[in-house]
Amino acid sequence: MTASQPDVVIIGAGPAGLTAGLNLVRARRSVLLVDTNRPRHAPTLHSHGTLGLDGIPPLELRKIGREQFLAYPGAEHTTGLVSAVAPDLTVSVSGVRGGPDLTLQPRAVLVATGLTEVLPSIENLRAYYGTALHSCIECDAYEESGKALALLGSGPDLATRALEIAHWAPDLIVFSSSLSEGDTARLARAGIAVEREPVVAIEGERAVMTGIRLESGRVVVREGGFVRPDWVPQAAFLSSTDASFDDAGRVIVDARFRTTAPGLYAAGDVTAREPMQIAVAAGEGAVVARTIHLDLLDDVL
């Protein structure tokens, strides 16, 4: 695609990208949405906490969002992987699943690629991820209320996450060898146990999780729980631009979701924002759409 170039290229078709795209085509902007169709939340059966959509399957939400976006003139979608964004905003796309290779020259680029989750290397963890085990406390803790839960993983915020989970499910065990003595004591005061023996597998019967198997072979009975993965932002294709990144590799933006590179914007989980909920990402998509629209108006004045 070189003859007819869109006003805006949006990279990523999650809640932030789709909401931005919908608002931009309603502002009579031409928009091309580029996505690999490999969403982070694919294993999740139901999403929660979004007004009017509580309990909707995330993949169904994406399907509805894309259909609503594409119903407007000026809206296009392609399945592809962005390999590079140049300082002049030229976007290079490698087609996947039958999508074409493209070289695009839009007036603005929005990055809404989100994160990749790197889960702990534990046998059978992925078999229960999205059903019995979750990463988003705000999204899924209510459904786990009162159960015997586990918290797996590591990270500086692990103790804080444990205290938050225990609000819904006091019978909680944190499985981690990386907690400091101070955090361990903090959890002990709250009645939360810490198990430092390495976890080797998730036990279960068919789709029902029943426990955590440790290196010694001992199985600790648990009905479900949460995982603290490592989150890796998907923004390496911006390396030749003037965009700035924080220590975790997330894109730094201002209050209106402009990056430090002219014409380049970012919203959703690829930026340094919390919590990582659909409603939050969608809200950012609406804000950045207005920012882009107004900036494009300024360009012709």
TrEMBL record:
A GO MF term: thioredoxin-disulfide reductase (NADPH) activity
FAD/NAD(P)-binding domain: residues covered: 7-285
UniProt cross-references to Pfam families, sorted A to Z: Pyr_redox_2
SUPFAM superfamilies, per the entry: FAD/NAD(P)-binding domain
Reaction(s) this enzyme catalyzes, per UniProt: [thioredoxin]-dithiol + NADP(+) = [thioredoxin]-disulfide + NADPH + H(+)
Name of the protein described by the UniProt record: NAD(P)/FAD-dependent oxidoreductase
Keyword terms, alphabetized: Flavoprotein, Oxidoreductase
Domain of life of the source: Bacteria
